[in-house]
Amino acid sequence: MLKVEHYNTEAAHWLIRQFEFFSLKEPFLVEKFIPRPDISIVFHFKDAPLIQGEQPVQLEPFFVAPIISRSIVLNLHGMMDTFIVICKPTVFSRIFGLDLSLLRKHSIALPRNTFYPLWETMSVIQTAKERIEYFTDFINRTQNTLYCT
């Protein structure tokens, strides 16, 4: 069964719109994801989905899901423990210096030296509340000065 939890928080609201948690304890599920106007930082701590298509694509442990122009079909399988941070695209782009213009790619790589230690620490954290707090602390430390719109 696929379980999805949504959390809204005022923490780092200058960047974060919402947190989502996905867990799956079934061998196989196909789900269609439609385009939306936000970008997401996605962390897969267990099995990562496959994008279905002519050539299936295995998703990475962590990445940015950009704004895409068409829906994608994901093959969710195994044991999933996924933490998603839905962000304001222009703010995220400005902070991390990543080009988020409309791409044909399924994902944008995040700087490994910055995000792998974050992924590694969050992989052992078990609760939504603790992951949200840890990620919020990380993002506030990363943004050294007050963000101005």
Topology:
Blueprint: E1 2-7, E2 16-33, E3 39-44, E4 50-51, E5 57-58, E6 62-65, E7 72-87, H1 89-96, H2 112-122, H3 128-142
Task: Provide a descriptive summary of the structure in words.
The protein is globular and about 45 Å long. 23% of the residues lie in helices and 36% in strands. The mean pLDDT is 85. It starts with a strand and ends in a 7-residue tail after the last helix. The chain has one domain (2-133): Jelly Rolls (Sandwich), CATH 2.60.120.10. With 149 residues, the protein is α+β, with helices and mostly antiparallel strands.
Residues in helices, as a percent range: 10-25%
DSSP strand content: 35-45%
Instruction: Outline the biggest β-sheet.
Output: 7 strands, antiparallel
Assign the CATH topology.
Answer: Jelly Rolls
User: What is the H/E string?
Assistant: EEEEEEEHHH
The level-1 CATH class: Mainly Beta
Mean pLDDT: 85
| Rg calculated over all Cα atoms | 15 Å
The CATH superfamily is identified as: Jelly Rolls
Specify the overall morphology: globular
Number of helices: 3
CATH architecture: Sandwich
